[in-house]
Amino acid sequence: MPTLSRADQEQFDKARDLIETAPRDIGFAKSMFFGRIKSEMVLPYPKQADDEVRRTDELITRLDAFLKAEVDPDKIDAEERIPQHVIDGLAKLGVLGMTVPTEYGGGGFAHSSYCRVLEHIAMHCTSTAVLVGAHQSIGLKALLLMGTDAQKKEYLPRLARGEIIAAFCLSEPEVGSDAANVQTSAKLSEDGSHWIINGEKKFATNAALADFMTVMARTPVTDEKGKTREKVTAFIVTPDLPGFQVVSPNRSKLGIRGSWQATLKFTDMKVPADRVLGELGKGLKVALSVLDFGRCTLSAGCVGGAKKALAMAVDRVKNRRQFGRTLGEFHLVKKKIASMAETVFAMESLTYLCSGLMDNHADDTMLETAICKLFCSEGSWQVIDDALQLWGGEGYMRQHGLERMLRDARINRIVEGATEVMTAFVSLVGMKGVGEGLETVMKSAKHPVNNFGRLAQFARTQWSDVVIGHELDGLHDKLRPEGKALGELTRTLARSIIRLLGTHREKILDQELIHERIAWSAIELYAMAAVISRLQAKLEPVNGNGHSNGNGHSNGNGNGNGHGHVDRDMVVGRAYCLHAAERVRRRLSDLFDNEDASILCTADAVLEAK
Ligand SMILES: Cc1cc2nc3c(=O)[nH]c(=O)nc-3n(C[C@H](O)[C@H](O)[C@H](O)COP(=O)(O)OP(=O)(O)OC[C@H]3O[C@@H](n4cnc5c(N)ncnc54)[C@H](O)[C@@H]3O)c2cc1C
């Protein structure tokens, strides 16, 4: 066996740690990389029980009244703080513990219901949505998912009631996008009674307000063979521990100014031994599971902001007159409105498809939630920017709120996986399956003949899968063309990947310009699947009595967000599919005929210039 260099081995180990967290039964998104469409994973579109929809509707009605009366987003933005009465009000409404099971004093709501609530909060005040999300989507999520019963009993009731606030602390001065590189260290005391943690955490949302923190630290872990490796472990940290310090509660920033990000320092901080969250050395798995939920709810927040911006843009262009006509009569304005509406519809379709997966405890959602986060964070930024443009000079003025919404939306492209990092992630995780795992592709560098043989064999044996089962089953006649395009393009994606792997082999790992085309093809194909599925739900008869959902009263997308507008939704959704398919076709064709070399050459010239 040829030996790997130390650097290669480290990269390889990190990649394997990440990949090992993927379950065996692959989901819809990963299957697309094989050219397969797993219809049963996107059809029917998730539908919540009527009772759940009703009680969420009731909560949203009370929440909306509270937000209008008590939450002033401009004041929160200007004063850079969320007043205590806002936190208390959210707690009283049950929002801060809505996903916590009732046995621990929470509301026992489904994840989709929580997403609907976050969407509404984000529509009104993004800073407040961030506080709620940092508390419930990520802060207490590891406790909920991996905590022991004793840990849950100790903390969950107070967290659910909003008496204490939670935070999630992964980032450090040297740990950003490379999340596996955690430097904060935890060592077990000699008597085994506690862990001694040293290190610094950065950007921890809510941490200065929090009485409960999920903290990632590096611990020595010995495997069955007696080999000791440093691995990440999750700990419960509370601010009363000796050695805990808030270095700075918050720093002034561009947007979401009411939310606070703390810098923390741990100096020989003693954490009782029973405060390990989940298994020792499985902190990365904890973090990735938590981020699955975080990315889905972050997307719901993006949907809220984008929906509001679209509504504001529509209102403006229908009423503002220039050159003797309303703005909405000009074709370049129509183009923006159409594109905004398509994007918002696809964002919403993706978000509630993913939240449905979480509610059904689907096994393999890592790729789906990453795709959802990427699409929604980029989409909301574009939609809000377009709305501001259509508002012209007035859009730039603070009083209308679009200026704040644009600043607030910017962070979504950085947190919980920056766009570029997530783009490479989606592409590599997807392609990993096709190449029998990154491991094989990486190893093929060291065993060019053997492993390329395995790749070629893979291409032959999987080819039949690539060309069968490539359409969504049982689609309504009206959606057949979209289903057909999805099938054809998914097959082209898989064929392109096999060709790429054969051409680039291990070098594919660093080819981010290729990753971008592959990732955004997969993202838009998955978004098409979500849109088609949601439209199908709107067209399908309800209760088997032949009455269509087109009566404006039914719950077309199954989560209470889809009342009526079937005709408009059909136009918008089908237009999204048409344009998305065109973009995917272009990206896949550009894979093999592009000007990438010139881009890299230009960047190198700039980077090397003195
Ligand atoms: C307002 C706010 C709230 C936050 N809340 C939390 C929180 O609650 N808990 C927590 O743990 N962290 C939190 N963070 C941290 C956040 O998750 C990180 O900022 C994010 O992961 C990016 O890391 P970084 O800032 O170190 O950027 P870097 O890792 O330095 O990356 C900078 C940029 O480089 C590019 N880049 C990086 N790697 C690659 C690559 N492989 N390929 C191509 N391009 C690349 C990307 O454009 C990226 O945006 C928060 C940050 C902010 C600003």
Strand order, biggest sheet? 1-4-5-8
Give the total of beta strands: 12
Question: Distance N terminus to C terminus?
Answer: 43 Å
Number of helices: 20
CATH topology grouping of the largest domain:
Butyryl-CoA Dehydrogenase, subunit A, domain 3
Number of domains: 3
Q: List low-pLDDT spans.
A: 18-23, 444-453, 455-469, 542-557
> Which range does the strand content fall in?
5-15%
Query: Helix- and strand-based class?
Result: alpha+beta
CATH C-level label of the largest domain:
Mainly Alpha
Could you give a quick summary of the protein structure above?
The chain is of the alpha+beta class and 610 residues long. It contains 20 helices and twelve strands. The strands form four sheets. Strands 1-4-5-8 form a four-stranded mixed β-sheet.
Description:
The protein has 20 helices and twelve strands. It has helices at 6-20, 28-32, 50-70, 73-79, 84-93, 111-124, 126-139, 141-146, 149-160, 283-319, 331-359, 366-396, 402-409, 419-434, 438-446, 448-467, 480-504, 512-539, 566-590, 596-608, and strands at residues 166-169, 185-188, 194-205, 212-222, 228-237, 244-248, 261-272, 276-277, 321-322, 325-326, 541-542, 547-548. The chain has a four-stranded mixed β-sheet with strand order 1-4-5-8. It has a four-stranded antiparallel β-sheet with strand order 2-3-7-6, covered by helices on one side. The protein has a two-stranded antiparallel sheet with strand order 9-10. It has three domains: 6-44 and 422-608, Up-down Bundle (Butyryl-CoA Dehydrogenase, subunit A, domain 3); 50-166, Butyryl-Coa Dehydrogenase, subunit A, domain 1 (Orthogonal Bundle); 167-281, Butyryl-CoA Dehydrogenase, subunit A, domain 2 (Beta Barrel), CATH 2.40.110. Mean pLDDT is 89; it is low at 18-23, 444-453, 455-469 and 542-557. The chain is of the alpha+beta class and 610 residues long. β4 and β5 form a beta hairpin. The structure holds flavin-adenine dinucleotide (FAD). Flavin-adenine dinucleotide (FAD) is lined by residues 134, 168-171, 176-177, 203-205, 261, 411, 414-415, 418, 420-421, 424, 512.
